[in-house]
Specification:
Number of helices: 9
Strand content: 15-25%
CATH superfamily: Vaccinia Virus protein VP39
CATH class: Alpha Beta
Oligomer: single chain
Largest sheet: 7 strands, mixed
Helix content: 10-25%
Strand order of the largest sheet: 5-4-3-6-7-13-12
Number of strands: 13
Distance between the termini: 37 Å
């Protein structure tokens, strides 16, 4: 399936697309939950695909994408994921973030600034970055309308963020953005570099082990395997966001090992339950682990 800008990847995506899980991360503008946990994610979903590889298998060559995947659906994304933080994933993420007052915080893949604004409301000094110029434009407009002292910047975390000094931040947050980032190692290297030793990285992702059920697709294509990593596009009946922007599936061990390689030692893991109303309407899917929230500490021997 083509990207939201109408271009198909040069190489075939992994398996048969169908990535859908419960939506947390906010409610749709009509009060209904978002269609998928992937969709959930994008509430804090932010695009990191520009200039980064669209991976089709663990050892495949890559296709460099020049337009952020979220640029073409910025209106849809902003309307579907407003500022709301009572979902189980947001609650868990802020619990892991801890007391924020006075901290310098980097929100990676900030999108239209949904989580960034809440970090600022809780007392942090926040910089939000995203590769999607369209989403950053919306974030900046919201900041002008209701100033919270947030700075936003259109930037690619995979490019190393050369204009940000080493050890500049106490905390970095990435809520449902890691599966949008094609070059995980480059992103984690950049995040670790700008964190001070002892600083923390807190993230939320669709659980890599979520298998899906019925009309709810899991973390990998229905005709594929958990052990096959790569970028793919959802085609599930109840998917919405991931039909447009796709996602990178990685094994849980891939995430943990990559974090460790870049001096981000895993400190805590939480597995928030999906919303009751989501689980009740999706049968067996609601009985599996759907979300994963992790907290890491930047070690002294980082990059």
């Amino acid at each position: 399936m083509p990207f939201s800008d109408g271009r198909a990847p040069a190489t075939k995506p992994l398996g048969n697309a169908s990535s859908e899980a419960p939506a947390t991360g906010g409610r749709a503008s009509n009060g209904a939950l978002a269609d998928t946990p992937n969709d959930v994610g994008r509430s804090h979903r932010f695009s990191w695909s520009e200039g980064a590889p669209a991976i089709t298998s663990r050892n495949a060559t890559v296709n460099l994408m020049r337009q952020a995947r979220y640029d073409a659906i910025a209106d849809f994304f902003q309307e579907g994921w407003p500022d709301a933080y009572d979902d189980s994933v947001s609650v868990a993420l802020f619990e892991e973030a801890g007391v924020l007052s006075g901290l310098n915080v980097l929100d990676v893949a900030c999108g239209h600034g949904r989580m960034t604004r809440e970090l600022a409301r809780r007392g942090a000094k926040v910089l939000g970055i995203d590769i999607s110029t369209a989403l950053i434009t919306k974030a900046e407009a919201a900041e002008r309308n209701v100033p919270l002292g947030v700075n936003f910047r259109s930037a690619d975390v995979c490019a190393g963020m050369p204009d940000i000094n080493d050890a500049s931040f106490d905390l970095s947050v990435c809520c449902f953005g890691l599966s949008d980032i094609d070059d995980l190692d480059a992103a984690l290297h950049g995040i670790a570099r700008v964190l001070r030793p002892g600083g923390r990285f807190v993230f939320a992702i669709l659980h890599p082990c979520f298998p899906g059920a019925g009309e709810v697709s899991g973390a990998w294509p229905t005709n594929g395997s958990y052990y096959e990593e790569g970028w793919w596009v959802a085609q599930g009946e109840r998917s919405s966001l991931r039909r447009h922007v796709g996602a990178n599936h990685r094994m849980l061990s891939t995430y943990i090992n990559a974090l460790g390689r870049h001096g981000l030692g895993m400190d805590r893991i939480a597995e928030p339950e999906p919303p009751e109303e989501w689980a009740a309407s999706r049968g067996q899917a609601g009985s599996y682990p759907v979300f994963l929230v992790g907290s890491c500490v930047r070690t002294e021997g980082g990059p």
